[in-house]
């Protein structure tokens, strides 16, 4: 199994996610993608959102400085989905991290309970 993790190396949540995956999925090949330097494209984000079953708004890093500086809390409700995808793809700091996918399922953020359900144990 190949698992891709869109992450930021300075993010403790991302580091904890990778550690969890290595401990619970020792046979998996874990590929890390630096989300700030190489954010997923709008098309890749569409696929990730679709596989996750989540609303696109769940992919926004609402705690981030860029999100707050851009006033997105007030702007998102009037944006189209296409505009949201383009905005996320334009700046990796806007994307909630980590995003974990095996091409069939996707999780956003790190909650151990969710990881146990979605990614299972060793």
UniProtKB/TrEMBL annotation:
Name a Pfam family for this protein.
Answer: ArsC
Q: Which InterPro entries match?
A: Arsenate_reductase-like, Thioredoxin-like_sf, Tscrpt_reg_Spx/MgsR
Question: What family, per the record?
Answer: Belongs to the ArsC family.
What is the name of the protein in this document? Arsenate reductase family protein
Organism this protein belongs to:
Paenibacillus albiflavus
